[in-house]
Design goal:
seven-stranded mixed beta sheet; TIM Barrel; 669 residues; Immunoglobulin-like; alpha/beta; single chain; Rossmann fold; 3 domains; binds beta-D-galactopyranose; nine-stranded parallel beta sheet
Length: 669
Amino acid sequence: MTTRYRPFTHEGIAYGCDYNPEQWTPEVWDEDIALMREAGVDLVAINIFGWAHVQSGPGEFDFTLLDDVIARLHAAGIRVNLGTGTSSPPAWLTRAHPEVLPMAADGTRRFPGGRQAWCPSSPVFRSAALALVAATAERYGAHPAVALWHVSNELGCHNALCYCDVSAAAFRRWLRERYETLAALNGAWGTAFWSQTYHDWEEILPPRATISSRNPGQVLDFHRFSSDELLSYYRAEADVIRARSEVPVTTNFMVTAHIDSLDYWSWAGEMDVIANDHYLDHRLGDPTTELSFAADLTRGLAQGAPWLLMEHSVGAVNWQPLNKPKAPGEALRNSLTHVARGADGVCFFQWRASVQGSEKFHSAMLPHAGTDTAGWREVVELGGILDRIGEVAGSRVVAEAAVVFSWEAWWASQNESRPSSHLGYLDKVHAAYGALHALGITVDVVAPGAPLSDYRLVVVPGLHLVSPADAAVLTDWARDGGTLLVTFDSGIVDTADRVYTGGYTGPFREALGVAVEEFAPLAPGEPLTLSSGRTATLWSERGRATTAEVVDAFVDGPAAGSPALTRNAWGEGAAWYLATLPGAADFRDIARRVAADAGLIGRADDLPDSLDLVRRRRGATDYLFAINHGPDAVSVAARGDELVTGSTAGGTVTVPAGAVRIIREEATA
Ligand code: GAL
């Protein structure tokens, strides 16, 4: 992956929000700007959903409102993250061109009335959107307030997969480029199965709703196509902007639980700045740890460089079944966790809580209840802290372990007909990441095939789809002295979704020294005990060690007698294999053992798991972030200036319950 990185320049850590002034009157704007200054807000995203305000028909632009808002923000010294406004088409466009509306897999069109109602392949949509982008970039491309261009919004959040005829034709074009011949396509999709062989390109459709399960190769390629299609759309907007402006261009990614629409490894290199939106998902067992994972993955997309948290929430969202508020101090801890893990900017959705529209019950920096609130005080407190820690900006996170993550493996492993629908890709990834996180080991999250020389330990959770070349990068690295931990459901299929035969884990098999013969998944709640006394759930498998040492084995369940945890001495290094999903505490113990094999220790034993310790480094200076998620104060060894309170740590620092401390230290390595 190559990268552009024209980093957006900002003094210190940026603090900001989405701002939707079109929902309010100019008197309110004045109050907004005064309060933004009080809170220390210095970067606001505007015009994200601006299309209908700026354009009332073909060629009919009116920038009066935007001119006014930008001028006011500029006068107040607040920089602008300028939306191109194309995220949601206006009613005049969808009325004139209903063909731009997206089509669901069952062939029904989606109506306007929500947001992002457009087909990514529609040339009609694209040309209308690019006309708006051109007019906007022409007008503001050199405006001194504009710090960043914000293309569309969360591309692919709702409309990634469109099944209309225009998309079908674009899919066929994409397939012809990828495969060149029908024979190659038929081979890749295994169309010999169920009489699906194609004799003419025109016979090929997107994987629309079928009466039984769809062709998994076709589904996988449709994901790839859809990700590429939106990337080409992003590129088109970015090109129009770059022809008119020197200001860096980005869009907000959704590295977050559950949204798998885009392969961000293939997108990242085209962003000037990596920006992410993250929301705690209370449907997950441990949303706070998932936040750390998402932040580490976002840093991976930025190739270790600082990135921007474009959206998160002060309190509750409005789109989960139950929308929990944040506990006092939680928004602050969340924000500083992102900073600890590489963010050089913290922004919220949104500035002022809406009183109308779908998001009127979404939290905001300025809540419905106003400024005499705990929420507002925390927003102001956070602004003060971000000001005081400005020197952290530009430093880089220190990590000696990595976790491999792949959107392609996510797509392929969540196939409609799979061994168990009780386990998704993220369950496997989060479990492995959670075990390292509980030990206090900071990890980078990397793409398959990424260089690994910086690491002592690499964990490969459930990498269902992997190419032989990417697997070889991992096994070669281990043979040269690395410690590798591969977990079940890895190395199952190649990039054409074709099963590797000869024993599962395919290209990892020799390095791992195990041959897996048969999957033996379990129902939720079915007991699974290992010879060590550890317990596990949901997954077991029948197999045998070929050259590996069996460290733990299944004693009950359908795979009784088969290895559950193995270690293979592999060249100068070691390759571990975990064939089940242990409970969190047991997984942590296993991770501790494997990490020790790699010479990694993690957090000191007398510190609680609820203390997050992360280091950012610049030259000889370290910034040690100590984030205390627990109910008790914790004392941490540290020597240097503490930036949150402005005190000095002469050997230890006390981190009160729920608080964060950031100590400037001399780098230790
Ligand atoms: C994001 C989106 C914002 C807002 C927010 C609410 O997906 O970009 O516009 O809707 O979610 O959580």
